[in-house]
Design goal:
single chain; Rossmann fold; binds pyridoxal-5'-phosphate; 720 residues; 6-stranded parallel sheet
């Protein structure tokens, strides 16, 4: 069913396995595989931002022949391939040991509008996608039978380029599936169209690509097929491109089309997870399937709920998709006229009793059709219970049946090689799968201070080198004035305390808070004996001009000589840049306006690299901060402006009185002992509680298994 296109035209027989290896993202989180790939040609490896498919297409045949006869390379190659095959075939996984009786061939189907697995596959925009990618990788490690369903945006998300005024322009680089680890999935007769849905009165044919991440396969839907009307071919071109109607049609393809594609491929999931409201139509389609078989609405709803999980990711009301009734009527009209699911029932599924009545709320539909609903941190659980209490009118929010499973990050994907090696010496080579007991992580507190510090210095050096190389490229492409080189971080040096701030430029994330008092900031950064540096990165949503203005302000300050070249902005924040930053800075900064940050995950990535965090007590930090692994800005109250002022003052007090003195307090060996203790605490807490290993185990124990076994007990659907 899968056509194995010949992506890598020439490989010597002896190392033919490289093709298979580079078509599965497993290599991304295996240290040996990465070292082996890098050793083939480290220059092309860097130039392709670690994309093995692209690298192997560019390496000279001479070099490949050399590898094929180099004993040292071959030893590494053979060992990696053996590990790869063993990982895919492994039967002694966490899942199989805890649930030996789980039915085979009944996977969990995980639906999400974006997946961030590798920077070479730009089908994600930010935290949600990266989390979904990490979820899949962890499921693979744990042996949880899971498949992903998403969309293949064949023009990707956008590449950020700032013009000479610091204004963000979006450019779409050519998206070339040839250099991505994607394989076409075809119907038994070889057809590309696997299923179809009707939108806007026309059938839309849907094809799919498979992307493998270890043992987990993702099916990425694509409407760019020649059978389709030109307009429909463009439906899946862009992530979050187009207006509301376009988005509705994309979500229709994902939800309704996703279920139909799985049916066409003969896949029968035992549990269904809608990750965020974009995927809620998947639940509706399954309801309709059951009603087509003759079930009543109540019966079908009960059954769908018994096998469905819904996760909501934002407390920002505007972040919840809702569609106008007219748009749904226009786009998906025939859905309700063709079968037993009546129009009024359909609209009831997405109704909200108080807000924007008459619209279809994707989150409301997710909640009505899922037996398990959760937010993504303990604090976000409470916020979500209050937000959705109207569906259980009159109930005490504490008893609204919405749970909390705190997000995590995939340790082996986010930790630097060097720290992974250090943990291997502590816990053995299988530590990611073996170290399940949180208290085992106490052992990292005994790691040697000097070693921990030296590894971090190496990581910092890599980050600064990366900034310089990025600047070199932009200098050749566009920049004519040297000030731009300063703004890109070429004056950053290794000694100063270096603070990282990288995330989407959404106004609630408050990048501008640092600049409320420019004089105070200037004094902090330019102190002669104890200087501080700031490195920024992040994209604004293409339609969010407010966010673009904040970004432009940051950009202008990076070029302002008052700050002595100690503020840098790294363009095009994506996974590769994120890795460099979370591994290379000394302190991670996060300034969300509470309670807007549902979880936040970049600080967890930093923690796993021994980088402490300074953050508002929101999202994961409300449960992750323990007084020894970083600093917290306490919650404040008042108008937005008052809160901003108080948080600003608290931030600078902490930086001036605690952070800077601790960083620069060195002993006779020039080691900042108290700071290093803080680094190790960051790693301890991050490793013990904030990995996707912990998170996926929790989803499996609490949600997936009851759904797979049909023993989901909770039956407390919304009462309206
Ligand atoms: C981790 C990550 C995010 C999300 O970070 P938050 O702290 O949740 O804002 C966004 N974009 C990229 C590229 C990431 O790696």
């Amino acid at each position: 069913m899968v056509d194995d296109s010949d992506k890598i035209p020439y490989l010597p027989e002896r190392i033919q396995g490289l093709e298979r290896l580079s078509l599965n993202l497993w290599w991304r989180w295996n240290r040996r595989a990465r070292s082996m790939l890098r050793s083939i040609d480290h220059v092309i490896w860097s130039a392709t931002r670690h994309n093995p498919v692209e690298m192997l297409r560019h390496v000279s045949p001479g070099r490949l022949a050399q590898c094929a006869s180099d004993a040292e390379f071959l030893a590494l190659y053979d060992r990696t391939m053996a590990e790869f095959d063993a990982a895919l075939a492994r039967t002694d996984t966490w899942f199989s040991s805890v649930y030996p009786d789980a039915a085979p061939n009944r996977p969990v189907a995980y639906f999400c509008a974006e997946f961030g697995l590798h920077n070479s596959i730009p089908i994600y925009s930010g935290g949600l996608g990266v989390l979904a990618g990490d979820h899949c990788k962890a499921a693979s490690d744990l042996g949880v039978p899971l498949i992903g369903v998403g969309l293949l945006y064949s023009k990707g998300y956008f590449d950020q380029k700032l013009n000479l005024e610091g204004w963000q322009e979006s450019s779409h680089e050519v998206f070339n599936p040839e250099i991505m680890p994607l394989v076409r999935v075809t119907a038994p007769g070889g057809e590309l169209s696997l299923a179809s849905v009707t939108t806007a009165g026309r059938p839309v044919h849907i094809g799919a690509w498979r992307l493998d991440a270890g043992r987990v396969s993702l099916y990425l839907l694509d409407t760019n097929l020649k059978e389709n009307h030109e307009e429909d071919r463009q439906l899946t071109y862009q992530l979050y491109g187009g207006g509301q109607e376009h988005r509705l049609r994309q979500e229709w393809i994902l939800g309704i089309g996703g279920v139909r594609v799985l049916r066409a491929l003969g896949i029968s999931p035992g549990a269904w997870h809608a990750n965020e409201g974009h995927a809620s139509f998947m639940l509706v389609e399954r309801l309709r399937e059951l009603m087509n078989e003759g079930r009543t609405l109540e019966d079908a709803q009960r059954e769908v709920r018994a096998t469905s999980i819904f996760t909501t990711h934002t407390p920002v009301p505007a972040g919840h998709d809702m569609f106008r009734r007219e748009d749904i009527e226009a786009v998906c009209a025939s859905y309700c006229t063709d079968g037993p699911l009546h129009r009024e029932s359909f609209f009831w599924l997405g109704s909200h009793p108080e807000i924007d009545a008459g619209r279809f709320h994707m989150t409301a539909a997710g909640i009505r059709l899922s037996g398990h609903v959760n937010g993504v941190s303990k604090r976000h659980q409470r916020v979500t219970q209050e937000l959705w209490e109207p569906l259980w009118p009159g109930r005490d929010p504490a008893h609204v049946p919405i749970k909390g499973i705190t997000n995590g990050v995939h340790a082996a994907s986010w930790m630097s090689h060097r720290y992974m090696g250090l943990l291997e010496s502590l816990f053995g080579s299988e530590w990611e799968n073996d170290v399940l007991d949180p208290s085992a992580w106490d052992a990292v507190l005994d790691l040697d201070d000097d070693t921990v510090w030296q590894i971090h210095q190496e990581q910092k050096k890599i980050l600064l080198g990366f900034c310089r190389e990025q600047a070199r490229v932009r200098w050749m492409e566009l920049w004519k004035e040297a000030a731009h080189l300063v703004g890109a971080g070429t004056l950053l040096t290794r000694e100063p305390l270096t603070i990282g701030f990288a995330r989407r430029f959404a106004t609630y994330k408050r990048a501008g808070l640092l600049f409320r008092d420019e004089d105070r900031l200037m004094r902090l950064l330019t102190d002669q004996r104890r200087p501080v540096q700031l490195v920024f990165s992040g994209k604004a949503h293409p339609a969010d001009d407010d966010a673009k203005r904040v970004l432009q302000q940051v950009w202008q300050l990076t070029r302002d000589s008052r700050f002595a070249g100690r503020i840098a902005f790294v363009e095009d924040y994506e996974l590769h840049v994120a890795h460099r930053l979370v591994q290379g800075v000394d302190l991670w900064l996060n300034l969300p306006r509470a309670p807007m940050e549902a979880s936040g995950t970049s600080g967890m990535k930093a923690a796993l690299n021994c980088v402490p965090q300074l953050s508002t007590l929101d999202g994961w930090w409300a449960e992750g901060f323990n007084g020894q692994n970083g600093w917290a800005i306490p919650l404040s109250e008042g108008t937005d402006d008052e809160v901003d002022q108080q948080d600003h003052d608290a931030l600078f007090d902490i930086l001036e009185r605690e952070v800077v003195p601790m960083y620069y307090d060195r002993d006779e060996e020039n080691l900042p002992r108290a700071w290093i203790r803080m680094m190790k605490q960051a790693l301890r807490v991050g490793g013990a509680h904030f990995t996707t290993g912990r998170m996926v185990r929790e989803y499996t124990e609490k949600f997936y298994m009851p759904a797979l076994k049909g023993t989901l007990e909770q039956d407390d659907p919304p009462s309206v």
